[in-house]
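As described in the Methods, two query proteins were run sequentially through the folding procedure within a single session, without resetting any intermediate state between them. The first query and its resulting structure tokens are shown here.
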Amino acid sequence: MAASPAVSYEQWEATFNRLMGIEGKVLDEEVPGRSARNIEFFTRFKARHPDQLVLLHYNGNARDPRYEAGRYFAGHWVYYNGATVLCDVPAEDGETEIRVADARLFRTGIGRYRDKNDDVGLSALDAGGRPDWHESEQVQLVSADVKGGLVRVKRGCYGTRPRAFAAGKAYAAAHVTEGPWGRRSNLMWFYNYSTRCPRDAGGRSCAEVHAEELAERFSPGGRLAAFDGLEFDVLAHERRSRGARGLDCDADGRADDGLLDGVNTYGVGVVEFCRDLRKRLGDDRLILADGMGLANQRAFRLLNGIESEGWPHLGDWEIRDWSGGLNRHFFWAAQGRRPVFNYVNHKFTTAGDKPGERVRPDIGWNVHRLVFAAAVFTDAAVCYSFAPPGEQGERYGVWDELKMGAENRAGWLGMPKRPAVRLAEATADLLGGRADPVGGGGLGRFQGAGAGFALDGQAAKVTSAKAEQRGLVFRLAGVPSGGPDLAVFVTARAAPMTGYPPEVARLMWVGVAPAGERRDRSGERAAAPLRYMTWLGPEAFRSGFYFSQVGPEPVDIEFTVEGGEPVWISAVTVHAAPDAVVREFERGVVLANPSPRPYEFDLAGLFPGRAFRRLQGSPRQDPETNDGSAVRANPTLGPKDALFLADRAAF
């Protein structure tokens, strides 16, 4: 909105100063034209509202090469594996037809809207036959003749000049790109964060140049000096490719996807980039990055927290991944750098009819409330792209749960009085406490081919039988199940993976499957277990896993852990109950029911002596649910719903 000349600063400020801060795109790395007014507006906003948070939203994966890319050298970008140039290429302006060893590696009709062509790098080959990006030119693909082995390119693009290349001694490779993220935007080139990235003439890697650039922007006198920090809108831990083209992160002309000598050098490089940026910015600036997906960065203890762009996921408005969503945010709350700051960017989108089109699904008010509840349970802030209908005179609506409805009080809940309470944990443990701790008698229940089990203190230490194992798979066998609800809570920690910084947590899946070894004719299990993820680090962390459609028969709880290094399981409890959650605040309480069935809350037993009422909802939101009425002692919430209640004594 700030970029629109039709909106004055005063109109913009009046729209966005009603909560506790603002975050936005103010640079042109992704969307051209954003810096023209946005930097001024955001800087002015911070000066006028010093108590509000102001953050940069910035693409961490890639950038438009038209935007201030002069300090990067050609080898600082990631290319796909390319092809040898088989003809002499003259140094000429305009378009040139080039014969290549494999024209399949060059694509037209790519990008979000399927209307772009590859950007391509041409380079000399060194004496060892490797691309030498110090002698290179950037070009744009015009067409590709796969049968004829020919590509036609537009020469001397992106600040480079046409140069001559000799047949058999030159190389062509397409850039790894994303976007465009808007009809008026362009393809964006991926930074090569790999620790094997080629270095420029000064010996600097892409990650070092990028960290230096960002630090300059936030330094005294820099254009972003007034900002409180930044959030990397996408910053990947891994990049996986399919088909004939793969990422060539060490620039040897062969696809590797960053996996070199068994280590994800791209993900390691992202962590080291975050470490460098933290050192340059210090602890007075917030640094966050997307963290809702498995492929997102893993810079735990270096970043202050994450954005969940859509919670639990951008396309999960049925809230199927309730458990994974909570585990991710609880883990970051424990393992983010202090001060921890996580937030949910509330939005959901789905594919439209046209290429690249994203549309907003029609979802119920209950889903919105459930997302906001998850945020306050995990100490996460809320921002949103999915806005409610604006009231009379509003340019942009504000959700009732964030402003106490018609009473319009930001921060109305006050401080939390205690952590969120998962009510299932108060019900009977179906294991009878024998695995809480595991040393109390639960070790014998663990099984798994290729895994060893030993008691280490009160924890089960799980080790791989073979040093070369890339993962651990084991299970807790024969667990009773009352069905249909089963809530499993696991306390575990893990040793770091070999070759990775200690900040890189390990992925663990926990699922349920019918008890026993049912397998198909190939010897594999007939059906994979339904499962949810969590992270494991060097400190014990308690995760929750809620399964809402479990039968009455006993089940196996299956654990699948990334990496073959040891894992310690110190406690497991299992409960035949939904993962209903409550949290008490100074001036209210929040209830959530993630179950597909109604759930009754015992407010009188949970909060003796306190009386609550519903919010008085805004007319254009959900005044039927938020009707301002007093709440009885045992309210029932419908499936997949939440409720924000005000303390009657506080208001």
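Immediately afterward, the second query was submitted; its sequence and tokens are:
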Amino acid sequence: MARSANKFTRGFTLIELMVVVAIIAVLATIGIPIYKDYTVKSNVVATLAEAGSYKTAVGVCFAENGALDNCDAGTSPVPSAASRVTGVTDGKIALNPNIDCDNDSATTNTFAYEPNVVSGGVMTWDIVDDASNCAQYQ
């Protein structure tokens, strides 16, 4: 029951393993920035979606009071501040999507929706403040 000396175990050569490692490195180099952009975009979209109910509430407040002066967070009909909506003052909705758009961890990228009332009581919204760093995600 002796084993034959001619049989040997086959495996991968060093070159084959190095090629596989190089392919994985190239895929990671391409995939990581795409994934970062995806997560930033999803945080911005979630923040803007959360702000939607506040925009509606500020519109109702303006319709009831005729002015934006007392349309603050926690006053009827504007709800209190939440996770991504950090506050509402005179109708201006402060937002913090908890992202770092410019890859500078020292910078907190916050922005705000600011209401503009035009003729006929029509309200439009502008994005203001520090949104320039996140412009590619708006």
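The chain is about 40% helix and 15% strand. We note this only descriptively and draw no conclusion about the first query from it.
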